[in-house]
Protein: Pyridoxamine 5'-phosphate oxidase N-terminal domain-containing protein
Amino acid sequence: MSRFARLAFTDTVRRVQQQEGTRPRDRGELGSAVGLAPDPLGERERDFIGQRDGFYIATVGETGWPYVQFRGGPAGFVHVLDEYTLGYADVRGNREYITNGNLRTDGRVALFFMDYAGRERLKLFGRAETRRPEDDPELTDSVCRVRTTGRVERVPLIRVEGFDWNCPKHIPHRYTGGELAPVRERLSRLESENAELRSRLRALGEDPDELRREERSDD
Structure:
């Protein structure tokens, strides 16, 4: 059983799993020593996080209510500092500071890293702390090599407790502008080639539209 499973599968969750007949048999028992140590990020996880241009982070406030926020930036703005630590430059936003305020009383966080185009989702539990840029210039420099534009106010560090991958069953296909750029470029080339071919046909005295109508009539 992984550390993620130990944290996520509470007694109540396990009872529901048993009632619904979905409790996996290979998760082990909570009484075992398995899952006590944090799950280290492997090559797959490091590459996946390094390619993301955004993630969702959940915190819990003093009222007990959860709060979910989206953090975005250029691909790779979340840096995998080692197999147990993530860091990024947190820039000034709407200045509500709900996430950062929640972390003052409870450092536990849950993160979702999404790849809508590839239909993959990485779930992660961690404990977050924040550092001021002036207090750790070396760390700040390392996470600012790729970062969101704006004034850096703090550097959140997330100590990974556990992670798990989701199946793609209900993840919709969505694409970013960067992911669509090659398709748009190819479409532009095809449109240019088509325009050139039509121009050549006209130079030969042929009507491209008439030829197309004839092809349709033959079908």
User: Anything to note?
Assistant: The chain has a mean pLDDT of 89. The longest strand covers residues 152-166. The radius of gyration is 25 Å. Strands lie at 54-60, 66-72, 79-82, 85-87, 90-91, 108-115, 120-131, 152-166.
